[in-house]
Amino acid sequence: MSAMSTSANCPEPEHSGLLKFSSAAFYAVSSFLIIVVNKTILTNYRFPSYMFLGIGQMTTTILILYFAKMNQTVHFQDFDRSVLVKIFPLPLLYVGNHITGLASTKKLSLPMFTVLRKFTILMTMIMEARLLRKTFPNRLIYSVLAIVFGALVAASSDLAFDAEGYTFILLNDVFTAASGVYTKKKLGTEGLGKYGILFYNAFIIVIPTLLASAFTGDLHKAITYEYWLNAPFVSCFLISCLMGFVLMYSIVLCSHYNSALTTTVVGAIKNVAVAYIGMFLGGDYLFSWTNFLGLNICISGGLVYSYLTFHSSSKPSQSDESGIQGNQDQLIIPLMEDSIDRLPVK
C-alpha cells in the first residue's frame, strides 16, 4: 500500500523524447487497427456478441503472457492474495472499458464514435488532477477544451442519434479515463509492472465475463454464429484477439513513458484517420458541414496539445525542478482532500 500511496507524490522519472513519441505512435497505430478490425467483425459480418469478442481478446492476452513468463521472457509476481489488493480496481475498470467500447463500436458510425470519445480527454484531466495531484499549463487546458468543443459541435449535427449507442460511448469514456489514470498510478507497484497489470487484469475478469455471457444468452449467440467456418471472418476474429493484447500493451507502454492524459489525447489524434476513412468506408456516415467543422476543431486541438507536449518534453520546467508552482502559466485544478484516494463514484 505504501507504493500506491506514494506514487502520486514522487516525481516521475524523465524519459527521452524518442521513447515518449515512439510509445505514443505505437499506441495510435494499434488503436486505429483494432477499431477497423472490430468494426468489420461487428458491423460488416454482423457478429452478434461483442462480449464474446472481448473474451477472445482477454484469453489471448492471458495465453501470450503466461507462456512468455514460463519462458522467462517477461517477469511478474506469481498469483497470491496480495495481487488482488495491488491491482484493484483495474480489473473492474478494464472489463467496463472493454465491453462498453465494443458495444459502442457496434452501435455508432466510426466518425461519431471518434467524436464522442473526445470527452475521455476532459475526464482524464480531471481524474489526474484529483487522483495524481497533477497540474496543467493553461495552453494544454485550452487545447483540451478546444477538442471537447469540437466534439460538441460535431455531435450536434448527428442525424443518426442512437440513445443506447450514446450511453455506451459515454460510459466507455468514464471507464477509459479511470483505467488510464489508475494504470499510471499502479505501474510503480512492486511485483506487478507492465506485464503483471496486463496479465492479472485479464486473468481476474475473464471467468466472470464468460459466466455473464453464458447467463445472458450472449455466449449461445456467439457459438451458433453461422460464419465460424468462413475463413475471412475467422481471420478477422483471430486478428482482433491478437490486437486486443497489442492494444492493451501499447496503452500501458504509452502511459508508462507519458501521462494518462497524453495517452488519451494520442488516441484522439489517431481518430483523424479513423474519422476521415469512416466518411468513405462503412456506409453509415451522414455528412454535414457542422459535423465536419466540429471534427476539424477536435483535430486542431489535438495537434496543438501534441506539439506542446512533445516539444516541451525535453525541456524540464523550472516548476518541475524546484517543486514549486510559481509559474503563472500553471492552473491548479482544485482538489477535495477527502477524495484523493477514493474510487470514482459510478
Outline the structure in words.
The chain is an all-alpha fold and 346 residues long. The protein has a two-stranded antiparallel ribbon with strand order 1-2. It contains 15 helices and 2 strands. Helix 12 (231-257) runs antiparallel to helix 13 (260-280).
Order of helices and strands: HHHHHHHEHHHHHHHHE
Overall helicity:
over 70%
- Distance between the terminal alpha carbons, to the nearest Å? 23 Å
DSSP strand content: under 5%
Rounded mean pLDDT is: 76
| Main sheet characteristics | 2 strands, antiparallel
The outline comes out as globular
Radius of gyration: 20 Å
Low-confidence stretches: 1-10, 314-346
Number of helices: 15
The total count of strands amounts to 2
Structural class determined from secondary elements: mainly alpha
Short description:
This protein has 346 residues and is an all-alpha fold. The protein has helices at 2-6, 17-44, 50-70, 81-87, 90-107, 110-116, 119-131, 138-155, 163-186, 193-215, 218-223, 231-257, 260-280, 289-312, 318-322; strands at residues 136-137, 330-331.
